[in-house]
Specification:
This protein is of the alpha/beta class. Helices cover 41% and strands 14% of the residues.
């Protein structure tokens, strides 16, 4: 099974999950510093204070990426390193760090793909309301322009946001992520302000003459009713609204879905949408990033027949409780291409959490991860043969890292990180992936 010449074989990380050095060289605090230091918020009280110490070990890490043979690397820029208070003075030392990374990648022949926001909102902006405050969108665009002015001549792929669903909903409705709010009205407002931030940032990059490709990454789910009963079908449609269409429709159709206002009416009206917002949000992009982790079978919730749903638990849950469904990736790629956009797509993340450990021989035998990626690559390839334009595939993650509310309790990396020594060791999946890259397909 071969992929097209020039297919982007990548790997992905995010700033707060790997960098550490949270108080160095002028970095300001982010909502994840605050949240991870809040008792009870993160498993075992883990924080990103040190993480993979990538801030100091970046050279060694870039060498590992070179050894792996990836053609591209998706990293995120920490807004609080670059603009420590979110708005106002720029911290040149923060920009210097990302410049070293970008130059280091280019020297190794690796194409940088930069995410501007992977959840680490400057705490000062949270203190002013965070994503519930419309001004945050304007500050994001200013920050995007600052990064672009320094790195625009060298970065071929720009992503504004990573997973606005998680920022808005997991952070403001479920409360499992920073800032830990549990308020549906705030969550829906945050959805809009995040999308507006994306739109304003795209406008800022375009105004600045961006030559790289500009996109956004959404996490999308494949949603199926558990049965054909009208109640289950309606529940699945609501979950699809909540997880997918609230992002896809404004981005690609310039409007919230027709059922959105009625669904959210019990908690909020859409008065946060101002004239012109949707034009900004739907401005043309160059590519679209998709993160895929979850496929759901959905049934009605008898306790909340009007607004609720239940996700049927997977038959064989993984350590995070979700199932493995490679076919869901093909479904999503094809749905997006068919219903929403002809833009080239990139799988900017997919991956499997395991409790990896080194055996007596030192080998980290993550065969389930190899099977996971093999299945997802087959699914992606199938979608391509059915007409989907797919530019690249970025496993989550290059390194084991701080997995948000799960702390260091689960591992997603191709490379094992022994946190006490910070030693990196390629897992069996890293060696397998290096071969995939070399032969440009499944060996
Ligand atoms: C995604 C996040 C990423 C990582 C993976 C496992 O939702 O974008 O940072 O945590 O899940």
């Amino acid at each position: 099974m071969r992929f097209p010449d020039g297919f982007l074989w990548g790997a992905a990380t995010a700033a707060y999950q790997i960098e550490g050095a949270v108080a160095e060289d002028g970095r300001g605090p982010s909502i994840w510093d605050t949240f991870s230091h809040t008792p009870g918020a993160v498993l075992r009280g883990d924080t990103g204070d040190v993480a993979c110490d990538h801030y100091h070990r970046w050279r060694e890490d870039l060498d590992l990426l070179g050894e792996l043979g990836v053609g591209a690397y998706r990293l995120s820029v920490a807004w609080p390193r670059v603009v420590p208070a979110g708005a106002g003075p720029v911290n040149p030392a923060g920009l210097d760090f990302y410049e070293r990374l970008v130059d280091g990648l280019l020297e190794r022949g690796i194409t940088p793909m930069l995410t501007l926001y992977h959840w680490d909102l400057p705490q000062a902006l949270q203190d002013a309301g965070g994503w519930a405050n419309r001004d945050t969108a304007a500050h994001f665009a200013d920050y995007a322009a600052v990064v672009h002015r320094r790195l625009g001549d060298r970065v071929p792929y720009w992503l504004t946001l990573n997973e606005p669903y998680c920022s808005a909903v997991v952070g403001h409705l479920d409360g499992r992520h920073a800032p830990g709010v549990r308020d549906e009205r705030v969550a829906v407002t945050a959805v809009h302000h995040l999308l507006l931030a994306h739109g304003r940032a795209v406008a800022a990059l375009r105004a600045d003459g961006v030559t790289g490709q500009v996109g956004i990454t959404c996490n999308l789910t494949s949603v199926h009713p558990a049965s054909e009963t009208p109640a289950d079908v309606a529940a699945a449609r609501r979950l699809d609204l909540h997880e997918n269409r609230m992002y896809l429709d404004p981005l690609f159709r310039g409007a919230y879905p027709a059922d959105a206002e009625a669904y959210y009416a019990p908690v909020t009206d859409f008065g946060f949408v101002h004239d012109g917002d949707l034009d900004l949000i739907a401005a043309p992009l160059d590519f679209f990033g998709i993160n895929y982790y979850e496929r759901h079978h959905v049934r009605a919730d008898p306790a909340d027949p009007e607004r609720g749903w239940q996700r049927v638990p997977p038959a064989r849950p993984t350590v995070t409780g979700i199932g493995v469904h490679p076919e869901g990736l093909a479904e999503i790629l094809e749905r997006v291409s068919r219903e929403y956009t002809g833009l080239p797509l990139v799988v900017t993340e997919t991956g499997l959490a395991l409790h990896d450990y080194a055996g007596p021989d030192g080998e980290i035998a993550d065969d389930e991860r190899i099977a996971f990626f093999e299945g997802h690559l087959r699914a992606a390839h199938g979608a391509m043969t059915r007409g989907v334009s797919l530019l690249g595939f970025f496993p989550w993650s290059f390194l084991d890292n701080f997995e948000w509310a799960s702390g260091y309790g689960v591992r997603y990396g191709l490379y094992y990180v022994d946190y006490p020594t910070q030693r990196r060791t390629p897992k069996r999946s890293a060696r397998w992936y290096a071969t995939v890259i070399r032969v440009n397909g499944l060996p």
